[in-house]
Amino acid sequence: MPQITKFDIAYIKMAQEWANLSYCGRKKVGALIVKDRMIISDGYNGTPSGFENCCEDEDGMTHWYVLHAEANAILKLASSTQSAKGATLYLTLSPCKECSKLILQAGIKKLVYLDDYSDAEGIHFLKNHEIEVLQLEKNTLFHKEYKTQNDELE
């Protein structure tokens, strides 16, 4: 079973803060992509550039064009000189099926997340394609007793 590092805890807390930047009312999701202990991209769920920052319709349903946090982070990398190959993705909510394909295609090798999305197929897909998946328990994130492994750079 994979061990949790103090860096996993720190980055997931940062992803939680990033989620707070979302304009979505129903669900705020944050993402960080980290490689060699450097944040190389970030994202939160929201509308595409140039759209009004309103994620839900008048019935409270999410607009179909809202981008998920992980998709935003991966797309941001596409316009940079960085690569997600071998990186770790920190997410406040497990990915959907569509975003799981993006994660695999981007070359991300590890996913650390907090809450479960309503459909677990995305997680199953990643596990079946040799992506290391680790869920952190939200209620233990802020306890100093949280047991971590030796935090040497891999």
Automatic annotation (TrEMBL):
Entry binding sites for Zn(2+): H68, C96, C99
An example molecular function term from Gene Ontology annotations: zinc ion binding
The keyword Metal-binding belongs to this UniProt entry's keyword annotation: yes
Catalytic residues (UniProt): E70 (proton donor)
GO biological process, one term: pyrimidine nucleotide metabolic process
Occurrences of domain CMP/dCMP-type deaminase (ranges): 6-126
InterPro entries associated with the record: APOBEC/CMP_deaminase_Zn-bd (IPR016192), CMP_dCMP_dom (IPR002125), Cytidine_deaminase-like (IPR016193), dCMP_deaminase (IPR016473), dCMP_deaminase-rel (IPR015517), Deoxycytidylate_deaminase_dom (IPR035105)
Domain of life: Bacteria
Cofactor entry: Zn(2+)
Entry keyword annotation includes Metal-binding: yes
One Gene Ontology CC term in the entry: cytoplasm
Key words, A-Z: Hydrolase, Metal-binding, Zinc
Pfam families membership: dCMP_cyt_deam_1 (PF00383)
Gene3D superfamilies referenced in this protein's UniProt entry, alphabetically: Cytidine Deaminase, domain 2
Family of the protein in this entry: Belongs to the cytidine and deoxycytidylate deaminase family.
Protein name from the UniProt record: dCMP deaminase
Organism for this UniProt entry: Halpernia frigidisoli
